């Protein structure tokens, strides 16, 4: 479970301080999926980065499974990112020199949580069986994102953070990938927080949050 309370974040810019998040609070239950919508510049990536530990809030608290993210040491963050938090990016971020099989097992191996039965289930669900021995560069965008989804879920993380995961895909492929992402997130019993510009993609998720003028509103 993820819970953040009274989070504020702003940036020093040449023309003064820019407040981006103003006292936002929210909660995502285990197994739940939440879309994060908002206009460009509204702070979607900022919020995702705070939860991923890529940036620090000015104020507020964040908890993941009762572990405080706000006071976490670098060592705790390393463990959280390896074992409990996965990231899925718009541009896949697969390792070009590793084959598909090694790419998709990488995070589970690093976490010491490789469950071959669950991996095989993901491979089948995501239609990757015939692709395991190829390199990422030989795959289409949709295929690469399916490998990235398998990699993010193979160790059943608590939380998957996705930043526009279908942003580089055509409309039909985006719909296919989104259906598979939701299906696999449910199979792993992970929670999903996904940034998107697309109301159509957000509709696949359980809940929708909107960021506007620094505030977070739910549909
Ligand atoms: N490191 C930074 N330093 C200064 N300003 C920043 C920094 N990161 C983000 N900002 C500013 O904070 C605001 C929110 O940015 P953010 O990337 O979170 O928005 P977003 O909703 O994800 O936008 P988009 O949909 O265009 O990706 C923007 O005005 C941006 O310029």
Chart the SSEs and their pairings.
Layout: E1 2-13, E2 16-28, E3 33-38, H1 44-52, E4 59-64, E5 67-68, H2 74-84, E6 85-88, H3 100-110, H4 116-125, H5 141-153, E7 159-163, H6 171-188, E8 191-195, H7 199-202, E9 207-212, E10 215-218
Parallel strand pairs: 3-8, 3-9, 6-7, 7-8
Antiparallel strand pairs: 1-2, 1-4, 4-5, 9-10
Helix pairs in contact: 3-5, 5-6
The protein binds adenosine-5'-triphosphate.
Protein name: Putative ABC transporter, ATP-binding protein
Keywords: ATP-binding, Nucleotide-binding, Transport
Organism: Reinekea blandensis MED297
General description of the model:
There is one protein chain. This protein has 219 residues and is of the alpha/beta class. The chain has one domain: P-loop containing nucleotide triphosphate hydrolases (Rossmann fold). 35% of the residues lie in helices and 29% in strands. It contains seven helices and ten strands. The strands form two sheets. A six-stranded mixed β-sheet has the order 6-7-8-3-9-10, sandwiched between helices. Strands 2-1-4-5 form a four-stranded antiparallel β-sheet, with helices on one face. β9 (207-212) and β10 (215-218) form a beta hairpin. α3 (100-110) runs parallel beside α5 and α5 (141-153) packs parallel to α6 (171-188). The longest helix has 18 residues, at 171-188. The protein is globular. The two termini are 20 Å apart. The relative contact order is 0.21. Adenosine-5'-triphosphate is lined by residues 11, 13, 18, 20, 38, 40-46.
């Amino acid at each position: 479970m993820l819970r953040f309370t009274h989070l504020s974040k702003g940036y020093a810019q040449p023309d003064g301080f820019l407040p981006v998040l103003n006292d936002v609070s929210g909660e995502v239950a285990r197994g739940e999926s939440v879309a994060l919508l908002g206009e460009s510049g509204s702070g979607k990536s900022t919020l995702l980065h705070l939860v991923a530990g890529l940036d620090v809030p000015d104020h507020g608290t964040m908890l993941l499974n009762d572990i405080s993210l706000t006071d976490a040491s670098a060592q705790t963050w390393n463990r959280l990112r390896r074992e409990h938090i996965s990231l899925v990016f718009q541009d896949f971020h697969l390792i070009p020199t590793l084959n598909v099989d090694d790419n998709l097992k990488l995070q589970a191996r690093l976490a010491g949580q490789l469950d071959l039965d669950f991996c095989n289930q993901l491979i089948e669900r995501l239609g990757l069986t015939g692709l395991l021995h190829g390199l990422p560069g030989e795959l289409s965008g949709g295929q690469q994102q399916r490998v990235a989804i398998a990699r993010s879920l193979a160790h059943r993380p608590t939380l998957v953070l996705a930043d526009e995961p279908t942003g580089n895909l055509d409309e039909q492929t985006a719909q296919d990938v989104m259906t598979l992402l939701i299906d696999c997130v449910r199979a792993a019993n992970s929670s999903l927080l996904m940034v998107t510009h697309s109301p159509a993609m957000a509709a696949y998720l359980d809940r929708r949050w909107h960021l506007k003028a620094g505030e977070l509103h739910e549909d």
